[in-house]
Specification:
The chain has six helices and twelve strands. By secondary structure, the chain is an alpha/beta fold. The longest helix is centred in the middle third of the chain and has 11 residues. 39% of the residues are buried.
Length: 233
Amino acid sequence: MSNINFSRVIHLSHVIDTNIPQWPGDPQVEFTTVAEINNDGYYLRKLDIGEHSATHINAPKSFEHQGISIDQYPAQSLVVPAIVINICYQATFNPDYLLTIGDIQTWEEEYGLIPPGSVVLLYTGWQGKWSDNSAFFNQDAAGNMHFPGFGSVATQFLIEQRQVAGVGIDTHGVDSGQDNNFSTNRLVLTQPRIVLENLTNLDQLPPTGTTLVIGILRLRGGSGSPAAVMAFV
């Protein structure tokens, strides 16, 4: 991709703070001051954060011992075109809603076939729940989480029939809250594709015509990384 034409640049990453929603069992975000301007002449903090906290990217090493780690992703693979499918209406009535092939075909009837090499971003409306940990994970009395995601059949279709470069979503997982097997993650990450979670501002993106620039921490052997994702529109 030699040229990026754009009129706006939009942050798709949430601000990182100590009170962000965290997947059960993940380490809490912590800031520790290690230098003060008055005492040291400069200000510096130490950051403690999990590889899959905040807006982040997953790598194949998340699910396979011999999988590619995040530091092995080529720079070119992190600059990609993106399309946006809006399922906010469906998710409003069914928090466990899964993207279907029918949803994809409906989108394509209006905007054309998804171009090969694109990242498919799923806008569910969940980004608006980010400041409310309870609403974001939407756990029932038994502790089961309820939020929408990519269906396995639709994911397989996107990989095999549309040759997508990856997927992304504004929830804490491209898999729905009801999928404890991480089916979509496993399907997409059979190769070092893109999996982005906890995105925001997807409502500001058009259905087509976006280019993503995904900034990663090149963590040696990393299963993923917090990500600074910017959309060029």
